[in-house]
Design a protein that fits this description.
- By secondary structure, the protein is α+β, with helices and mostly antiparallel strands.
- The chain has a single domain (11-151), classed as Thiol Ester Dehydrase, Chain A (Roll).
- The chain has helices at residues 30-39, 45-48, 50-54, 65-74, 77-81, and strands at residues 19-27, 85-95, 105-117, 124-134, 140-151.
- It has a 5-stranded antiparallel beta sheet, covered by helices on one side.
- InterPro entries: HotDog_dom_sf, MaoC-like_dom, MCH/BMMD.
Length: 157
């Protein structure tokens, strides 16, 4: 019998210009949004108060943008970083160009933008990833550039 362990990709396996489509999508519910907002102590009325939000420009509550970012990146884990990441190094250029509403489905994709061997950590490499989230209609709801430190296959523990 052969054992197969689910893992992400090592530094050596990532190629700039490759786009990964992360499936399945994740439909975000009212319960998800309220729980995330209260767990993170974000009491913004746009996430929690339906009556107040009804009189605001979008006419309804918005999914917490930090939850959108977390699900966007989280959807990439099994395909890219499960067991192959050393650390997140940072996020830049985070944008939310279109709102996400209760009942919308978030579809995530990632493009490998660049990679280079680490100059200070042998056996590891720095990879720049561009994450994009779209709703069920294809509208871009989130974008983020992320820098990640990966293991090389040879050096991984």
């Amino acid at each position: 019998m052969t054992d197969v362990v689910q893992r992400g990709l090592y530094y050596d396996e990532l190629e700039p210009g490759t786009r990964y489509l992360h499936r399945p999508g994740r439909t975000l519910t009212e319960a998800d949004n309220v729980l995330f907002s209260t767990l993170t102590m974000n009491t913004q009325a746009l996430h929690l108060d339906a009556a107040w939000s009804a009189d605001q420009p979008f006419g309804q509550r918005l999914v917490n943008s930090m939850m959108t970012l977390a699900v966007l990146v989280g959807a990439s884990v099994t395909q890219l970083t499960q067991g192959t990441i050393v650390a997140n190094l940072g996020f830049t250029e985070v944008r939310f160009p279109h709102p996400l509403f209760h009942g919308d489905t978030l579809y995530s994709e990632t493009v490998v933008v660049a990679k280079r061997p680490s100059t200070s950590r042998p056996g590891q490499g720095v990879v720049t990833l561009a994450h994009t989230g779209r709703n069920q209609d294809g509208a871009v709801v989130a974008e983020a550039t992320r820098t990640v430190l990966f293991w090389t296959k040879e050096a991984a523990p």
